[in-house]
Request: fold
Amino acid sequence: MRRRVWGLSGRLIASYILVTLAVGVLVKGLVVGFELPPQVDNAQLQAQVDLAARSYGLQLAERYPGGVPAGTVLGEPGQPARPGRAVTAKDGTLVVPAITGPIQSRQAVTAVVAIGANGRVLASSAPSRYPPGRAAPSELPVQAAEAVTGDPASAVLKGGGVSTPYGNVLFWIFLPKRSPADVREPASGPGQVSYVYVQAPWSPGWVDTILAWGQLSGNADQALSFPYALLIAIVPVGVLFGLLSSHRLVRRVRRLERATLAVADGDYTVALPVSGRDEVGRLEANFTSMTRQLGSALAAERERASADARDAERARIAREVHDAISQHLFGLRMIAAGMRRADPGNQQVRAIERISEDALREMQTLLIELRPASLNGARLGSALYEICAAYRDRLGVIVDASLDEVTVPPPVEHALLRITQEACANAVRHGNARELAVSMTRQDGHVELAVRDTGTGFDPAAPHAGSGLDHIRDRVAELGGTVDVESAPGRGTALTVRVPVQ
Reply:
């Protein structure tokens, strides 16, 4: 169970959960960075705008008790205009520059506007944008215009962030006179200020998320409810997605695991179906190819070991026969020959001598057949010459060998060697042949091996007790070749084998 949990499936699930968590945290950071600026950094800017509006309202009341003179330019002279930017002084107050010239930029500027009870502009820090005498509602944001055009008795302080033709701004409307008496009798003399409007450029954008996190209000918590819900749903979603995406891959890997265990136990017949074209699919194909090659190599090794064991046993039997039976037969023939010379007319002694000679000759043929013929690094033609020489030297058989050196695969070499040995043994033992003709040539993509003798022959259609010819046919059939036997009683035998080679 532990292996399953921390296996491939568990690791994939954990990776999906971590990736989803990272995405969730990123989304949360984006929400904090891009959706909450009005509630964080701009809360401080809004406070500066409010303070500037109150400050200018008090300054105008003190500096111009008889009313603001026409054409007065408010703000601080000598301060450069920075469209689209709000500048804060060292003491934390808002810097409102006095802009006497035209404003070329279409961006919002930091500005203060003094408005009379009739709703017209009395003075401003940017006359080119807020000209004196112009109706204030046509110049101010809609939200600010509503406060100016309303009933002064019910007017309230108003501000916030809005969009204007000159960009986004944070504004504040301040009423310099708020006492009940002043409200009942609003200032209506020339130049008397009833409203003070202050704005600062506001550009929503990225903020310090660490600072923002510490300054979140209740509305911010509500805005973050979705990321919180997303984070809570990450774990089950990651587990489900990990299981669905890794199920097929894990199943294929476990099938490979079972196959490797089967091969480790000695089963080389395992064949995996290729379940895809990816890396695992190629691994499955390569695994099947590997098991087939291993199976073929193991079968060949077992066959070679079995053949070596048979050859070793045949050699042992040949030594035993040569050291025991052949020596006895040779001694029996010598004794019979001595008795024949002592008593030439004894027919029984002659029969014993003849039988012992035949038995000794048969034994020599059997010994040649028992001794394993092998290439031992030599070429096929040379190995066949050795077989022919053995029959010529040990049995006195006349052998005419015409053998071309051919290059064939090892299985074909081994088969042709055994076929030659079997055919010669059959000709001498069963056909009593005294002359043999062995030839080997290559032509038309085939190797042709022929063994002809001048023995007694036989009828190929008649049943026969020996199995040598059947063995030859079986060997040739395994190589996809053909066997042709021509023989008749008293006319010898001609065996022709044709094997295809690349």
User: Anything to note?
Assistant: The first helix runs from residue 2 to 5. Confidence is low (pLDDT under 50) at residues 1-6, 178-186, 206-220. The beta strands are 111-115, 121-124, 158-164, 167-174, 195-201, 398-403, 435-443, 446-453, 482-487, 493-500.
